[in-house]
């Protein structure tokens, strides 16, 4: 029987899924510390959201993405709250991808990660351009300044910067989640009734 | 700002400055920045607020002004970007540092959201600290086993797994334990919960909300009517 959207939302944000969404939020937030330790120039702040999308479903991942940005806004940087729509989109895409059995092979995961990066760049560019004018005090500001210097508008500069960095970030995030899912013991994986990965 | 504000009043405060940022004329925006700076001086954690303003908001504001005034653009364009950024971010800093997590928890109870989402909000804050501790423990444990993050660029991504995988498995295990306790306690019960303490809207809160909402509406209308 086909479930309504409200029913699916309720099912995915209750019971075993609820504490896991909190775990996903926690993972999103500690990825900053991990990337600092490993010294890789990526954010990887959606690994938790993508993981929740794979094991709990689309709505759970969307809630995880939204709450991650709210929590990051409260704990780290208030500006993160403005990027909540980006995390919601990442959650929706990850959940949809998992529901189509996308996490079954590595090439598909890499391809979808790149595609997800393009979508993320398209969603985050207007926010970044409008709120920050393209300056976020991050390493990618140099790319924005380069595009501005060659005569592009703020919106286009931010979009090009996003298209240059987001696909790599999201691709690595998807690949990480793929390997984590592969390494997860079956006994643990089978405990999630909404899991789309078998 | 020293008294406990209801979270709804804080939200209206943020909304008011968002409206100024989006619909206000440059002079209104400058007045808004002045009000925000004086509000930042009157909150309990004023030192932290000023530190945030000096180290984060001000540098980005100056950079926005410089970058958007450069490349042949008019001076006013850079100023508009800088003012908008300050007006969008500073209210969030003031509200977050002006209130306490307890206020937010109490305030959440009066907002009609499902109890499970309320629980999720509180648990996610609890688990962040716990995961940080787990991460530090795993990192030290892996270092003792000979883990070295400073390898070649090609191997860097492989270095993520010895840290990420144990942290995730421990976190999932903790989450599943919680879910068992969660279901056992019957969080999904349809009966309405009774709390010992909740925040109610005081007359001051009601008046503040009314003034802030009316001012916001007035600004929006004025931005369409005035040239």
What does this structure look like?
- The complex is a heterodimer of chains A (198) and B (227).
- Chain A has 198 residues and is mostly helical.
- Chain A is built from nine helices and no strands.
- Chain A has helices spanning 5-12, 17-38, 47-55, 58-75, 84-99, 106-132, 141-149, 154-183, 186-189.
- The longest helix of chain A has 30 residues, at 154-183.
- Chain A is globular and about 55 Å long.
- The model of chain A has no long low-confidence stretch (mean pLDDT 84).
- Chain B is built from nine helices and no strands.
- Chain B has 227 residues and is mostly helical.
- The radius of gyration of chain B is 23 Å and the shape is flat.
- At the A-B interface, helix 2, helix 4, helix 6, helix 7 and helix 8 of A face helix 3, helix 4, helix 6 and helix 8 of B.
Strand fraction of chain A:
under 5%
Tell me the major beta sheet of chain A: none
Q: In terms of structural class, how would the helical and strand content of chain B be classed?
A: mainly alpha
Q: Tally of extended strands of chain B?
A: 0
Helical amount among residues of chain B, as a percent range?
Answer: over 70%
Helix content of chain A: over 70%
- What name does the CATH topology of chain A carry? Arp2/3 complex 21 kDa subunit ARPC3
Instruction: Please give the largest β-sheet of chain B.
Output: none
Number of helices of chain A: 9
């Amino acid at each position: 029987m086909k479930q309504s959207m409200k029913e699916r939302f309720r099912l995915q944000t209750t019971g075993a899924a609820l504490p896991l969404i909190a775990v996903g939020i926690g993972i999103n937030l500690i990825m900053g510390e991990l990337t600092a330790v490993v010294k890789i120039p990526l954010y990887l702040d959606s690994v938790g959201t993508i993981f929740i999308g794979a094991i709990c479903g689309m709505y759970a991942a969307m809630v995880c993405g939204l709450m991650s940005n709210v929590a990051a806004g409260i704990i780290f940087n208030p500006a993160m709250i403005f990027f909540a729509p980006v995390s919601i989109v990442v959650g929706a895409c990850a959940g949809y991808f998992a529901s189509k059995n996308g996490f079954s092979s590595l090439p598909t995961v890499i391809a979808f990660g790149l595609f997800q990066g393009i979508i993320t760049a398209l969603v985050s560019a207007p926010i970044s351009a409008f709120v920050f004018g393209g300056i976020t005090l991050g390493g990618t500001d140099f790319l924005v300044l380069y595009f501005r210097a060659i005569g592009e508008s703020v919106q286009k500069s931010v979009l090009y910067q996003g298209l240059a960095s987001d696909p790599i970030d999201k691709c690595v995030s998807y690949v990480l989640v793929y390997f984590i899912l592969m390494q997860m013991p079956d006994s643990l994986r089978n405990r999630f009734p909404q899991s789309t990965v078998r | 700002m020293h008294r406990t504000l209801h979270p709804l009043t804080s939200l209206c405060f943020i909304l008011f400055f968002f409206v100024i940022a989006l619909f206000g004329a440059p002079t209104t925006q400058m007045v808004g920045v002045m009000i925000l700076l004086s509000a930042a001086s009157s909150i309990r954690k004023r030192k932290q607020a000023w530190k945030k303003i000096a180290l984060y908001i001000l540098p980005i504001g100056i950079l926005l002004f410089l970058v958007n005034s450069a490349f042949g653009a008019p001076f006013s364009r850079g100023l508009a970007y800088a003012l908008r950024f300050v007006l969008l971010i500073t209210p969030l800093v003031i509200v977050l540092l002006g209130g306490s997590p307890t206020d937010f928890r109490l305030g959440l109870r009066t907002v009609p959201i499902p109890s499970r989402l309320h629980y999720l909000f509180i648990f996610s804050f609890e688990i962040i600290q716990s995961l940080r501790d787990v991460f530090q423990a795993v990192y030290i444990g892996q270092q003792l086993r000979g883990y070295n993050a400073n390898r070649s660029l090609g191997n860097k991504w492989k270095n993520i797994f010895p840290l990420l995988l144990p942290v995730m498995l421990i976190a999932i295990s903790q989450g599943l334990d919680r879910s068992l306790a969660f279901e056992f306690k019957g969080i999904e019960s349809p009966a309405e919960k009774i709390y010992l303490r909740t925040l109610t809207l005081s007359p001051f809160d009601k008046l503040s909300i009314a003034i802030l909402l009316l001012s916001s509406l007035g600004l929006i209308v004025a931005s369409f009517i005035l040239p």
